[in-house]
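CHAIN AND CONFORMATION:
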Amino acid sequence: MYVYFTTIVRGAPNRDAGELVQVDWERKRVARTTRMILENPYFEDPNPRGNTRGGRGIAFHDGQVVAGTHHELKFFDAELKETRSITHNLLVGTHEVLIQRPGRIWIVATSVDLLLELDLATGEAVNRIWPRDLPGLQKALGLEPLEIDRNADNRVKFGQMNHYKIPHHLHMNAMAVWNEEVYGLLSNYGVLANFSREEVVIQDERLRRSHNLCVREDGQAFICDTYGRGVWYVDLNARKIVDRLDLKSFPWVRKMARWPELLHLGNRILKKIGLRKFTLARPLFVRGMDLSGDHLFIGLAPASILRIDWKKKELVDAFQYTTDLRHSVHSLKADPRP
């Protein structure tokens, strides 16, 4: 089995600010890597923390790996050699991606609060969901539409903008399809929404600043408790959070985090007194998740992957890519094929 993940590297030059990594999971070794470079168009991002840097969501299509950058989808063969790419004028701030039906891919364009479905062959948009335009969510959350020229090329404009300061910004960073209905995670509002029904399914402060959304056929769902260093268990049928997995309950995780936590504390002190310009990734920053049967694959910083039996709440095994706290996992995908 191979596990693929993308990274963001804080403080690195723009062209070295993230990778796509292929791990031979059984041998716990890196099989291949390739840099994820912002292109088409390329521009220098002065933000050292993240923003347009590194790799984003991952999917498999027609024997290839599809991985995102801030405003592009890149296609790679089995050797991780890039074969082609597609982009779109509204593809801004890619986070997670999902292939629901052959030949099409959903993309969470976080910077502009958009779910964009593209044709994988042509790159043309076949579906768009603007949550801030939906009357049901406007009424429930007091939202207003984003002021944006939807026909213009917004990739550079919004790529250089601090979208956190945009009024009513949702920071939608994950989506899922369950029972043929489309769901999205609105991180800034602590909301899990059903866009097909235009309704809030769950609104809970505990979901603020969360990432990723994996849903089983029975409605059991999982959401990364990013800053809390855990995973929320959600019952979509009951429309509530039902349990939590504390990742620091695992000795392997606690041991891995000791030195990064000290380093992060020192870095924050240096930044506070003006001797450092940016903050390193938060230790055990939980982002990147995939569901494979009874196992959850979960990403951490510094770049590491956990495999957890979610029913038993047991750590099955783990892989650490680096001890460098600048390297944070963004997205991951497990490929069960040999």
